Amino acid sequence: MTDTVSATDLQSGETQSAPAIRSFARITRGATVRQPRPGKWELLALAAIVLVGAALRIYLLGDKSLWLDELNLLRSSYASGKWLAPFGLSILDHPPGYMIILRIMMHVDQSEWWLRLPAMITSVIALPVMWGLARTLFGPLAGIFAAFILALSPMHLRYAQEAHSYGLYGLLSIVVIWLLYRAARAEAVPEPAGRTVRGWLGIWLPFILTSIVLMYVHYYSLFLIALCVLLFPLFLLDSGGGRLSSLWRDRSRRVAIGRMVAAMAAIGVLYLPQLLIGVGNSLDYAKNLDESLPQHSLLDSALWAARPITENWDLGYRFGVIAVIAVTLAGLAWLLWRRAPLGVSMIMVLVLPVPPSIFMAFRTGIAYNVRRIIFTLPVLILVMAVGMVVIVELLSWLASGTSNDDDPVRGVGHRRVAMITSAAMLLLFTFAAVAPIQGYYARPKQDWKTVGEILNTLVDTNDVAVARPKAAKNLSWYYPAIQPVDGELESALELACGLKGQTYLVVMPNEPLTASEQRWIDSHFVEIPVKDLVVYYRTCEEDSPWYGAGAEPAFDIAWNPHTPFPPTRRAYEAYAQVGSQGDGAVQVLQPTPTPAPTVVIPTDQGPWVEAAALLRAGRNDEALAKYQELVDTHPNHRGSMMGLAQALGAVGRTDEAVALFDQVSEQWPDFVWSYVRRAELLESVGKEQEALKDFRAAAALANEDADVSFVLGHAFMRLGENREAIEQFEAVLAIDPDREGVSAVLEKLRQ
User: Which end of the chain, N or C, is less packed with Cβ atoms under 10 Å?
Assistant: First the structure.
């Protein structure tokens, strides 16, 4: 690999005439090897990728409800509806750039698909831009791989279908990195045009303007712009070669770095108004939030840093994640070996923004989410694309005996193997993305839209629809007539019932009812759950047989076939069963719950008994801490690991709980309860298909265990798999013929 082209030759468009450019050189010395113009097949491949990516992002664009983040930003953007009115509360944690775009959009139309259109368009544009950046850095094959991975990224797809700034934020991040590298290549030339003011503007003005727009779109882009100070010298080394010491010993490079500092100073001056007013107000507001994360959740937040991988690819049993990590490590290893400056720059972008962003979230109470540093996703994809090219070229070399696809003797074999390997890599990532993409489309967002449809369709003259203040504020987007209730809820609902119509109450999770309110509502209302919300229904008509009469239309509207929410179906099945039994069964549907008995936590029977008692008592945080201590001191104790997994699930840390259940299953493959408990957890969060797989795995292991079969029978019945439920209940009776209630359930299932 001795064939090189100087930076001077690169700028002048001249190359050495004799030697052919080897394929490995395109990723080893991409900056000093002139890339060929895109050929017909490369452009056709790019066009196909863009079409597929666009189709995925357009599909069901307006189907899902606007959720809390979208509603907050939209309300603040529209404000009073006047063109020059001040923005609302979201201006405290968002710069005005994207809010201006949303205000313009909302003056034209306010439908979901229209408000999400800018995010969709910018996300589609990001695909060819990603190709261009990867091609510039690493060659044509890397460009195709990078665009392909981004097109199938479920994370990128998700934010392409949100009325939020993340689509534009991601696009501009790619452009900023590309323009910075372009500037480094221009400054690496011995006599760059940047030595004059006009030449400096020609090199740096696109970067300055794009950076300013990006910083006015999202505050967390400040991390990327600040990183550019460190990235530019590394890009300079990658473009022109030389040792690290040349950055301060070589006068031309000192001048180039000075030009970069001047560009950064210009950015700072142009951003100063927002920095003084907007960022200062945002930090003051964040400090006053009452929702600060508890101290122990700093580690919890840090675990989210892996989500660009875990949220995007999954082949089951973690194979997809392992494959992606392997490809990423291959890319990083190659870059650090052959193009160390660029490899270090990639690591810096991936790693350095994470700790300060997590710490900021921890200190201010703004929930950390990887979308805030979405500029790391294209960099991760660049590294993965390099890893894929390395694997393709390595396998081609092993199969053909040459690393040169222009070799007259072995070049045909090299190209054939490279083509097959490239297709295999694309198929791997396609297969890895199918399940997450299907899961995204099938998973509803916080469903204000469905609640609004229920109320708009069913609420009549004598009917009343109420909600707590926070829920009412969000629901007013879809149902402006909602009445907020701030005070005694029971008396307000009884007063509404006096109108002899139907009463609807909407409750959201972060505005929960008190225990006494919940008990009273359970005794007088039918529960209709939708995603992250609950609608309570009651009829007060004098001739109604019971308070739930007439709820069927609300259930019909609540069930969305595109994004089915299993709790809705289960609630309707319970409602239909009780309704068919007549007035005497009313109290069966929503019995008044009795207060939970005081649980005495034994402290003298060992830590395992104490931890289990804490979990049964609902003291989940204490149980989690106790089980964590047990796992730390007894790392291979199965009971401790199972208890910790259940405690993690109880506090909402589902991914960690599932991973721990997986670990138990790997260490003890025949332990049936690890599959059962994992399935129950997955079912509780709406992942019914995954839960069903685990229940079936448990059924295969349930060797004449009546307790396991009894649990599995009810699980299959809940999931609508009646044939398998019958098999499990029959297995129970074969072992324990006197098991109470099983015969009656079997008789009902066989009808």
Answer: C
